[in-house]
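Pilot study result, target chain (289 residues):
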Amino acid sequence: MIKKCLDSILQSFLYSKYRNYEIIVVDNNSTDQTQSMVTAWAKEFSIPVILIYEERAGTSVARNSGIKASSGDLLVFTDDDCQLSINYIIDLLCYIKKDHEDVMRSGAVLLGNPTDLPITIKAVESLKNWKRPMSRKDEGDLLGGSLIGCNFFTTRHAVNRIGMFDIYLGPGTPCRAAEDTDYFYRAYLAGIKLEVVPDCTVYHFHGRKNVNDGYKLLQNYAIGNGALVIKYLFIYPNFSRHFYWTLKSLIFRKYMKHTNNSLELSKYKEVLFQLKGMLLFLKSYLFNK
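Predicted structure:
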């Protein structure tokens, strides 16, 4: 899987004819042949690859290690189960050349395998952006309507303003998710413009085939969202209001008929998992300080 990801990155750079780049792979304590495969791949193509072994589990820890090892003025983040479109680098450079400020962007994330569940993807019909100050309603869209962690890029200057990823959030931690949403929240609060664009496309080969797999992922998302409620309750309460909306929806739906999506948690379960996320974040934060 990671070889196909690396192949797509290389092909996109070759197609763009852009040469001043580095590829950083963070091996997050894997037990397979990741290191030998990446090393052999880099030698075959004479590509500047920095391979880091990070024994501490967690997506946030791994991304932080990658940031520290990087040297470029522009940082692009993707996951090992994603593949860049051939035009990705060309699209990216077109946006960057027009910028006169720090911007954090995310492109479209499309389903790589049509037999996978239609989740963890984001089709983008038109450009949309967020920057302070905005209405509470528009800010509310940031939870699920803005950027996506497996496909985003920004400047080194913006990363220096925001800081590192929260090591108490994301896959590999008790809170399981929301490390990317938290990062986008912090960028927004720092005055950095967030933008989603209809191109800069990656294809996500997440491999989830059945509804149970989908439910597990949605549960993780709910736990992560609950962690965000606690984190932002006193920092910026508007970013905690989604729990209120979920509770309100739960009460309201008791008095109306509705059709359940097969890949949608019931509001009752969503509330429970968000409460679990709140407790897990408090426990992680208080007892690991």
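One observation from the pilot: The radius of gyration is 19 Å. A full batch analysis is planned for the follow-on phase.
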